[in-house]
Specification:
Elements: H1 4-15, E1 25-30, E2 33-39, E3 46-52, H2 62-69, H3 72-75, E4 79-82, E5 88-95, H4 101-121
Antiparallel strand pairs: 1-2, 2-3, 3-5, 4-5
Helix pairs in contact: 1-4
Length: 143
């Protein structure tokens, strides 16, 4: 197991920037868009990743989101949740003792890839006269 400083240093090296936790949180953005939030609580034994998905929560989608949470295959250990602002977020966590510097970087990379694939997994309700999108296959993530 690597310590949190070493984990963030490895991710920062991969990204070409210095990273640090502030109050247990490190937020990564690209061109003003949230890419991933890394949370490692000071008094905890897990690392948590989450990201706001670019979708507006619609009460008609809530059942689908809950059903998707139960489908372990395409979710790759992630789940969907609503945050305090009512935004849909993709979330995951792993025990710190399961992470080395290399596995942490690969885990974060895989999570970012998963956030990009989520729109293909979410079937939006069909408008009158239209057909709902079908989910596209998800490529396996490398850890």
């Amino acid at each position: 197991m690597a310590n949190t400083t070493a984990l963030l240093a490895a991710l920062g090296k991969y990204l070409g920037t210095e990273l640090k936790l502030e109050d247990g949180v490190c937020a990564l953005f690209d061109k003003g868009k949230e890419v991933v939030i890394v949370e490692i609580p000071p008094v905890g034994d897990v690392a948590i990743l989450h990201c706001r998905l670019a979708m507006h929560p619609d009460p008609r989608l809530l059942e689908q989101l809950l059903r998707l949470n139960f489908d372990a295959g395409p979710m790759h250990g992630c789940w969907l949740a609503l945050d305090d602002q009512g935004d849909v977020r993709l979330c995951t966590q792993l025990p710190l003792d399961a992470l080395s510097e290399m596995t942490f970087v690969q885990w974060v990379k895989g999570f970012v890839q998963q956030t990009g694939e989520m729109s293909g997994l979410l079937k939006l309700p069909a408008a009158k006269g239209s057909v709902a999108a079908t989910p596209r296959p998800v490529s396996p993530r490398v850890f």
